[in-house]
Design goal:
This protein is α+β, with helices and mostly antiparallel strands and 98 residues long. The chain has one domain. The protein is built from three helices and two strands; from the N terminus they run αββαα. It has a two-stranded antiparallel ribbon with strand order 1-2. A hairpin with a 2-residue loop joins strand 1 and strand 2. The longest helix has 36 residues. It is elongated and about 70 Å long. 0% of the residues are buried.
Length: 98
């Protein structure tokens, strides 16, 4: 936990330094709207938008996989209980798809 906190603090400090060094105003246009803002803020908005483009489909896929695992786990094994230390056939198929 402390490692994560220190890492988060370092990233925050680097981000603050980046913002303070890039306060030049730039013109930004998006879907017909335009305005000006500091360069660092515009770049941070772009980075957040990029992160959302990655996170939203990732969250959707995780939800889909969790539903599949719950559905498969709720079904009784077709070939009887799996021997100790081995997975049932359905769980093995899900795990080996990727």
């Amino acid at each position: 936990m402390w490692t994560t906190l220190v890492l988060f603090s370092l990233v925050l400090i680097i981000l603050l330094i980046f913002i303070l060094q890039n306060l030049d105003s730039v013109k930004v246009s998006f879907l017909g709207a335009s305005g000006s803002m500091p360069l660092a803020v515009a770049m941070l908005f772009a980075a957040v938008a990029g992160a959302l483009l990655v996170a939203i489909p990732g969250v959707g896929r995780m939800i889909q996989l969790r539903k599949t695992v719950r559905r498969v786990a709720a079904q009784p094994p077709v070939d009887g209980p799996a021997p100790t230390g081995q997975r049932s056939g359905a769980m093995t198929k899900i795990r080996h798809r990727h």
